[in-house]
């Protein structure tokens, strides 16, 4: 609906995986792709790299529910022309599309401070995941696998409230604001086996 506000813009395809994005881009050679970073079969960063290798005239704007400085740098180094947080993807997405199609790079304001050094340094992913206790890692693995708090509580003999408390602690330690950001961040990180 946001993109339909842009005159002379036609949506030619919508796909659900990184592999499909690559195949579709190679077939259609679109001017612009909005690329989610968390995709099945091939993540958005690798899909961006592959698409731009075969379709160098295509512009790509990465969309993500959360960001780390490393993640933003990786997708921009892969060739993305923009980075927009999903939480800001209303009017800001319109600005990003206009800027990128005009030949400029666009990065969400919430992200640029971290990239320019304006924000305090963020602990590396390894440092943040190292802060998790064994129980927190177990619960995180279950969350990423799609289990609900009630299901986790039943499986490991805790109350749902206790599981929710653990989830809150995990999110605080990893520096994310919600469950989807937690899953996004964790799905690219291989947790050591407990």
Brief write-up:
It contains 10 helices and 4 strands. The chain has helices at 18-28, 44-54, 69-77, 91-101, 109-116, 125-130, 134-144, 149-156, 160-174, 179-187, and strands at residues 32-36, 59-64, 82-85, 106-107.
What composes the largest sheet? 4 strands, parallel
Total strands: 4
The overall pLDDT, averaged over residues, is 81
Helix content: 40-55%
User: What shape does the CA trace take?
Assistant: elongated
Proper CATH architecture of the largest domain = 3-Layer(aba) Sandwich
The helix count comes to 10
Strand order of the largest sheet: 1-2-3-4
Gap between N and C termini: 44 Å
Strand content: 5-15%
CATH superfamily of the largest domain: Response regulator
The name CATH uses for the topology of the largest domain is Rossmann fold
**Total discrete domains:** 2
Low-confidence stretches: 117-122
Spell out the key features of this protein.
single chain; 194 residues; alpha/beta; Rossmann fold; Arc Repressor Mutant, subunit A; 2 domains; 4-stranded parallel beta sheet; 10 helices; 4 strands; elongated
């Amino acid at each position: 609906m946001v993109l339909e506000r842009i005159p002379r813009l036609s949506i030619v395809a919508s796909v659900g995986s990184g592999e499909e994005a690559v195949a579709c881009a190679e077939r259609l050679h679109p001017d612009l792709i909005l690329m989610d970073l968390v995709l099945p079969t091939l993540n958005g960063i690798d899909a961006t790299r592959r698409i731009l290798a075969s379709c160098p005239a295509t512009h790509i704007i990465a969309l993500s529910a959360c960001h780390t400085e490393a993640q933003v740098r990786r997708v921009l180094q892969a060739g993305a022309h923009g980075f927009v947080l999903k939480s800001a993807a209303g009017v800001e997405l319109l600005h990003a599309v206009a800027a990128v199609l005009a030949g400029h790079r666009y990065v969400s304001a919430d992200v640029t401070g971290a990239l320019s050094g304006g924000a305090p340094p963020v602990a590396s992913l390894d440092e943040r995941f190292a802060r998790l206790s064994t129980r927190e890692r177990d619960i995180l693995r279950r969350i990423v696998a799609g289990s609900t708090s009630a299901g986790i509580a039943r499986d490991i003999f805790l109350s749902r409230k206790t599981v929710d408390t653990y989830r809150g602690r995990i999110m605080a330690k990893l520096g994310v604001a919600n469950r989807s950001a937690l899953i996004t961040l964790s799905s690219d990180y291989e947790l050591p086996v407990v």
